[in-house]
Amino acid sequence: MHHHDGTYRKTAADRLGGRTATVVCLALALLLSASLVRSQPVPDAGEVAKQGVLLLLRGQFDSAVRSLNQAATLYEQDNKPLNRADVLLPLAQAYIGLGLTGKALQTLEVAVTIDRAAGDGERLSDALTALGAAYLQTGQLDAAQQQLKEALALANGQNHRLRRATILIHLGNLKMAEENDAEALAAFTESAALAPDTAPISAVALVNGSKAARNLEQFPQAELLLDQALPLIKSLPATHDKANLLIAWARGYADLKGRSGIKGSAPVLRAAEVLEEAGIMAESMDDKRAATYALGYRGQLYEQERRYDEAMLLTRRAMTLALQIEAPEANFQWQWQIGRILREKGQLDEAIQAYRRAASTLQNIRPELTTTSQLRAAPVREASGQVFFQLADLLLQRSGLAKEEQDVQKYLGEARDAVESFKAAELRDYFRDDCVDVLQSKITKMERVSESAAVLYPIILPDRVELLVSLPSGIHRHIVKVSGESFKETVHSFRSYLETRTTREYLPLGQELYDWMIRPLEPLFEAHRISTLVFVPDGALRNIPLAALHDGKQFLIAKYALATTPGLNLTDPKPLQRQTLQVLSAGLTEGVQGFAPLPNVNEELNSITAIFGGHPLLNSTFVAKNLEQEMKDRQFAVVHIATHGKFEAHTEDSFLLTFDDKLNMDRLSRLIGLYRFRDEPLELLTLSACETAAGDDRAALGLAGLAIKAGARSALATLWFINDEASSILVAEFYRQLTDATISKAVALQRAQLKLIEDPIYQHPAYWAPFLLLNNWL
After folding, report:
1. What pairs with residue 731 in β-bridges?
2. 564 in helix, strand or coil?
3. Who contacts 449 (Cβ-Cβ below 8 Å, separation ≥6)?
4. Is the model's pTM score more than 0.85?
């Protein structure tokens, strides 16, 4: 299956999700039921608790939550904390079954506290195991490891074989989430060896081990493990977890098609039989949750075999069940599946309708459901990029068939909106907060802002690249006939050559990209007297400066002022009020914390002070405490920071260097966020010595999203670290131009870059191109 360039980074949860049984339940079920019996409860509470566990095993999670909550309350009233702690474990399982991982974590924290206070090592080991597994569900790997290691130490101390085997399954899942499949396979193998006579544990260990073996491309081993697992699974009593294991087994076995020496459709047929068995069993228990997945995944198998009518029938039945139990994550999958089937059957309008429904459902799914690593759903994050881009693809195709211009515009606008929805979700996921939603509540449609600006919106698809250009006259569409993969390779090569000052090998690639992206649109730009291009890059394109594209005679920056924004609906475009610009500047000239000195920063900050006044925070005075104090005391329009900075794929690894510390993105955004509650937000945040991991689209996402996260209207930042002498010349010229109230920030940057190009020492794009003006360019 093709993953679009904009697809979310696979999180820990995604690596486990959907493709394998990471079922805590069966392996823990023995321990849970044992602990309830061990508790010797008062009859009333005990009966309610047993009823709750039976409902849990049948997959009736709503009812299980009610019963188990009631039992926990009764035990609390009777002052029986240990009995209450025992009930909290299955209660947490029921919450996880409903996708309420936050509630599960709270519940398990209480159980751990009770068991720790009681000093009961066996109980504590079980509670820590369940807590570690729940942390794993939410992708909090460090926390999961901490709990599971403590649980394993306790189980080793008690020499309890089955506990150790259960914990090893979760540790294996953890290793798989960390993409360490060899260690994962070792953990699963050890678990199965510890519990050869305990079918629930060894079955889970073997199925999960098969997933790890497939990741390692050890296909004969993967097949062997599944062959060993199936009779064990079939020997289990009918429960929700048995159905889940059968489903996981079937999906794993179907995945072996064309591998492991298995030819033809044999794996698919065998997998379909096992899914049918899981579905029949689920229906006999009235377990609609397992039944919807058994039907839907059977539909997916038939879809892959191009048996579209059967696939459609099964998927529609699966969707009916998903709607009955209000399982939006399943509903989304089946809506998307129906859309794909209709697309393959050539029913374009019906496919678009199904995709619209899937996209709408996806946007309303609670965030915790998108991070769970359960068997139930294929990872929603991983899927979301594909859904939005496949919908955009269909809408673009449909626009080409429309007769009326208003219909063409409607489909083009909707295609762009589909990609915008993904971009907003991607940024929300990167920063893990709702800064995006706050901004979207006050947006102005960008194309209504300036008559002389064109918005260039590339959409990278598997078989082509589409360019949508917003002009005062409407949206124009241009198709670049190059595969998404070739396009991305060209972009990445262009970036790597640009950074090398000693070579001009970037030139042919810069000209090729110019011919693809700019030359076909130039007649439009001329007709509309366009002077500024606003670029909304996707995926690999976030990693390059458009300014360095070349028409054979000159760079693009010589023709147009340029600005970049991560999304059309993520910009708050208002002109900069220049009358009395208050500027806070800060930076390092000295080498600290193992980073090289930046001797020209002194000159850079002096030139800013000469233009705007003020006292820079330099070296030992440039610490977070002083930065915060300055920003609390005065209303700055511009904050300029000249120091080493790095943008990485994970926000927690991105930082700006201060004299005594590293300022991470969260802390930086909290500092700058002080302005969010004032009438005027920060107008411009300048970071003049940053670098972004080359070839890493998520890292570039951090750079692009920084102004949004920090609550600043615009940011000026660099894609790669450059000679600090060149940087100081460019920055000084940018601010000098900025004092001219008749020009935009984009034109101020254009003039500063052209000044460097005119200097023979600095004309190579390595010196001037990495400066990007992000978001509001006015």
Report:
1. none
2. strand
3. 573, 778
4. yes
